Amino acid sequence: MTEPKTPIEAGGVADAPTADDLSQIRGLLFGEQSKKTEQRLSNLEQDLRASLNELEERLLATIEQLRDDLVTETSARSQDAADNKVALKDVAKSLSTADKERIRELAKVEKKLHSAAETVAAEVQTARVEAADTLAATSKSDKDTLASLLRAMAQELDGQAETKP
């Protein structure tokens, strides 16, 4: 007897292979290499996840450190600003006090100058009056002597003018 023939040998239609059949065929053809490739991909995925997790942790730690540094620096700058504000207020008070003192000193100097100007004006007036009195008190003979001297000079000058051609 002969062995039963497969449906294809018997001239019939073969049944479509099932997923298990394809998996078995693939396993036979590519089995070992496919397992190695899948294992390598799995290892790479694990390494990538580990690296990403480590990078994320370092990044978060750096961000936290920067945040702490920023808070510290902000606090220091705020304290510096407060100290500078107090110092500026002190300087402003000092300048205000100094300005008031300078204004008082200027007022005193102005009063002294005004008083000195009045004194000088009074002395000048007194000197004028004294000079006028001295001039008026000059003796008549001095005036006569001066008048005759001036006449003599005039005559001499007149005589010189006539002799010149």
Q: What's this entry about, in short?
A:
The chain is mostly helical.
Task: Explain the layout of strands and helices.
Layout: H1 19-137, H2 140-163
Describe the model.
The protein has 165 residues and is mainly alpha-helical. Helix content is 87%, strand content 0%. The radius of gyration is 64 Å and the shape is rod-shaped. The mean pLDDT is 82.
Radius of gyration: 64 Å
Counted beta strands: 0
Which geometry do the CA atoms define?
A: rod-shaped
How does the major sheet shape up? none
Portion of residues within helices: over 70%
Average pLDDT figure: 82
Q: What's the tally of helices? A: 2
SSE run: HH
Structural class: mainly alpha
Strand portion:
under 5%
Uncertain regions spanning at least 5 consecutive residues: none
How far apart are the termini?
192 Å
Offer a few descriptive terms:
single chain, 165 residues, mainly alpha, 2 helices, 87% helix
